[in-house]
Structures are given as structure tokens and as C-alpha cells.
Amino acid sequence: MHADLSRLTFRPERHYSAVVAQQGRVQLDADTNEQTAIQLHQARTLAADLIGRYGGPRDAAGFRIEYVGGKHDIDTLYIHGGRYYVDGILLDADRPAPGVPVPDEEADEQDPATPPSYWTYWDQPDAFRDPEKPGDRLPSPAQSPFVVYLNVWERSVNAAEDPALREVALGAAMPDTAARVKVVWQVLPLSLAELAIEDADPSKEVVRAAFEKWAKRQSLSSGRLAARSRRPDHADEDPCLVGPDARYRGAENQLYRVEVHAGGGAKDATFKWSRENGSVVFPVDELDGTWVQLASLGYDDKLDLDVGDHVEFTDTAYSSRLEALPLLRVEELDLPGRRVRLSAEPEPGVGRLPGLNPFLRRWDHREGPRRKGRTAALKGGAVPVAEGEWLPLEDGVEVYFAEGGSYRTGDHWLIPARTATGGVEWPADPARRPLLRRPVGITRHFAPLALVKGEESAVDLRLAFGPLASSIPAADEATLAAEERARREELAAEDPSHGRSQTTAEAEAAVDGDE
Omega before 415 cis (within 30°)? Predict the structure, then answer.
């Protein structure tokens, strides 16, 4: 998540069940966040174990799909409300009911039409499909059936994307408070060819099996990275910053974020990095060509903008689409007017709608000398991925991309750097060689919803489960009598005298013998 964090400490392989606060100790964000991660891991693991990979409650299962073609200017889907679970993550497809305004006594206007209770393919809350983009349009089922599926992932949201998170009582001069993590669900189409299904009329079982294979390939990233700290060549220029034997030469503790910008193979992929975990963002008030007016220019000289910085001009829609936009360079600053001039005008359709909360995100890579006299020429404003060699970031921090990887936009790794140790926190083997690690995110989850075969025809691929609880059956007289006999026999086995004294029991036995 893009948030101002010290580090992330949750490791499921350590089997911690709780974080225990101790009196008189410093409280860190990492401790609170680890407790949240532990609880989420436990709850979602339990739900996935009981439900399976995906499923919904039988009487309230959400995401029933209707294909609607020919009735509108452009084909669409109806996404009906209810709940559904994917890998233990709860999804809610219910559309919020509109509020009831106070009637206006002076105006003689009719109430606006009530929106439908379902979402459509074009207005679903987190997919942001654009009818003007051919790639966003639904395939034609008349030409070939297609599968409708759920794409589920999580992203961080701060006050720049959701101003309601900011406590206005703190004042505009104060930074925001806690960020949020949002579950993003997107209903998307998938052709049978992408599932390697040749049959034009496949069964549910065939589609589900092919989808599982496809989802497994999509959810795992083959990109791997290692990090280390190494004493840089210019370390002796500032010997007073940290200890003379330090490999990390930064003046402050940092959480470096290395994030894939443009995905693909190594020859096409690029990355960007931030020493603040990508958390330095600036809400945009207005865009005028290459000039951007900001709500704030930052709270100190470490969290502001400077000429030469690379920024990502984006908004809520493109953050959810996970599409790489060109990174732009800050060319000029107008401090009194809170304006910056960028190296180019942002992409059309991005950041033009105030309701999508446009913002700038600062990244800290620069174009310049890399090593041995070579220069790192940027590609679309980002750094090209070079596999099989150590790439310096800054202050002795270096990263290594393993050969043969494929990369996805949004994949990222976190590297804590600490002045106290003069190094970075990264797992290593007994010989202190850094270990290659897959990205810590973004984790994607998938579930099939429907197979669309034709007009108003959709084969339901969802799964459902019933409640575990059931009513207790009433016992009849025969059952009660049997239970009473069983109880007496059990007591008799434990106490043959049935609670009588030994003398009484012997006298009764003698009388029975005389008879």
C-alpha cells in the first residue's frame, strides 16, 4: 500500500496469533498494522477453508450476471446485489440506496429517478470501464461465447483520493491521519480462447477447470528481486552523516518501495522507486495544459516537490485500472500560486473530473549516471528493468532483478533502510547472500461468474453454500423414555446400590433370596 509506514512486519510463517503491547514502550505503526494483518489472515483463511476458493450464501449470493445486448446503445451486463467470497475476501455487490433529500418548498420539481438496485458493467464502482475504448467493450456472444469473471485485489486509499478521511478540525496545515485499505472488485469479460477452450459450447465443469488454470497463472508473478546495501563510492564525501563502516549512507530511516510501472518481459518492463513508500501525494485543484494547481506543496522540504522530480498524474479511476501512465518531470515551480509546470500535458481523460480526485504522486528516481560510466536513460519517465545485475538506487541501496521474470504493473517490493545498522532489512542465507523474493503485492484473486452464450443468456458459474446452523428437532415420548432408561443403566453401572447403605442393600438381597 502507498502509505507513510515505517515497515511491514507481518510474516504468516512465524505463526504469531496476536501483538501484545507492553507498558512504557514506544508504540509503532508496524505493531498496530501487524495486528490488523494477523486478524485479516485468520478470518480470511477460516472463510476460505470453510467455503472454498469462492462461493456465496445460498439465499443472498451476489454477482448474478445478466447479459443485455441490443436494448441499449452499447451492450452491458447487469450485476445483481448480494455477497460473495473469493479466497476468503468478502465482496458486497449491493448498490447503496439513494438518500432522501429535504423537500424544497419553493421549487416545483419532480424527484430524480431512483437508480436501479443493480450495477451495470459500465457503472460498477471500481472497474471504471470507458465506452470510448474498444478494449473495454464486451465481446459479441453471437461470434463467440465469453466468460464473465471477478477480479479482486486491494489498494490503499489516503486523504488525497478520499477527502472525507481528513479530519477538518485538525486544520489544513496538519497532515492527514490513518489511511485505508479498500477491497476492489471488477467484473470483466474473458474469451474462451484465453482459457484455451476450443469447444464452442463447453460445459460448466470444463469452463471452471480451464478458469482455475488461467487464474493460477495470473495470480502468481514470476518476477523476483533481491536488495542489499553497499558502501557507495562517494561515502567519504560526507563522513559525519553515519558511521564510517555503514553501507547505507542515508541520513534518515526510509522505507524504499520498488514498483513495476510498465509490465511485460524484461525488455519492455520498467520500474520506479520511492524512499517514502510512494506516500508523497499532492491533491490537484485544477489542470491547465501543463500547469497543475495543487492544494498543497508539502509539509516540509522532505515531502515537497522540486524541479527534476518525476511525478505520476493520476486519479481514482486509473489507480483502480492499474494502467501505466507516462511519468512526467517537474519543470517549474510557482510556490505562491501552489502551481507546478510539468514536462508534458497529462494523458487525455486522466484527472479531468474533480469527482475522481486527481492527484500527483512523487517518485524519487532520477535520470543520470548509473555505474561504470553508463547512463540510465528513462523510458516513459521510468527506469528500464535490467536483469542479472545490481542496480543502485541511492545512498548504497541496490536491487537485483532475477533473470527470466515477467512483470505486472503494480508489483512491488519494500526495503526498510536503517541508519542504526547502516544497512537494509532483507532476508539472506547463512552466507549473508540476499535472497530473491516475489513481490509483496499486488495479490490478485479471481472467480468465474457466468458463461455468456447469446442474447439474454448467461450460464451461472457461481457456487453457493448453506448455513451451518439448523433447528434442534423435538424429542417424542419414545425417545425421552429411551434416554431415561439409558441414564438409569449408566447410574446402575456406576453404583449397584443405587445410593442405599450397604446394610439396607444386604437385607433387601436376603429377602429376595428367601422369596
Answer: no
Contact 401, 411 (CB under 8 A): no
For 118-152, the pLDDT digits (tens) are 999 999 999 999 999 989 999 988 888 999 999 99
Q: How far is Cα 320 from Cα 234, in angstroms, rounded to an integer?
A: 41
From residue 231, give the alpha-carbon distance in Å to each of 236, 275, 424.
10, 18, 12
Residues 83 and 56 sit within 8 Å (Cβ to Cβ):
yes
Range 104-113 average pLDDT: 66
* Alpha-helical segments (H) within 333-467: none
Average pLDDT over residues 435-461: 92
Strand extents, DSSP E, 295-411: 310-314, 328-334, 339-342, 359-363, 369-371, 374-375, 383-384, 390-394, 397-401, 406-407
Between these two residues, 241 and 357, which has the higher pLDDT value? 357
Q: For residue 383, report the phi and psi dihedrals to the nearest 5 degrees.
A: -90, 130
From residue 512, alpha-carbon distances to 239, 497, 498, 504, 507 in Å are 107, 15, 17, 12, 9
Cα–Cα distance, 39 to 17 (Å, whole number): 8
3-state secondary structure of 393: strand
Name the grid cell of 98.
439513494
Sequence letter at residue 477 = E
In 3D space, the residue among 445, 331, 489 whose CA is nearest the CA of residue 48 turns out to be: 445
